[in-house]
Amino acid sequence: MNTSQLVELYQKIADAVIGMIPEEWNWVKLYTEYWGGYYVSFFFYVPSHGGEPVYSLDIPDRFEVDEEHFNQLKESLYNQQKSLWMQFADQEKEPWTNLTFSLASGGDMKMEYGYEDLSNLDPIEKQDRWETKHVFGE
After folding, report:
1. Highest CATH level, class, for 3-134
2. Which of 124, 27, 112, 34 is nearest to 77 (CA)?
3. What is the DSSP code (8-state) at residue 62?
4. Are 15 and 82 in contact (CB under 8 A)?
């Protein structure tokens, strides 16, 4: 797999997420599932001034953001994540079923890929487990 293509996709994903956050932040944790026609993606971030993590889907309700622009950024994020998944498929690598993308305000990035079958798990239970491990378990 071409490393420069991956780095470029990682940067595009980071740019899309950062564009959706309406304030300064310390870290972001993004979760994505992409398998068998199923797609879900959300993230949490911690504001730089402290406080509780903010859930991405709450941003339009909590802040005065242009909802059309926010939805365009969500679409861009989806396209970048799909491109990342396709890179794996095109290179005949095992496509991931989920990933956790961690980003620090200083620029450090980390990708954790999962390959397990998620089709029989309850979506709410999966999200709760992920949040416990990656957002609130820190």
Report:
1. alpha beta
2. 34
3. H
4. no
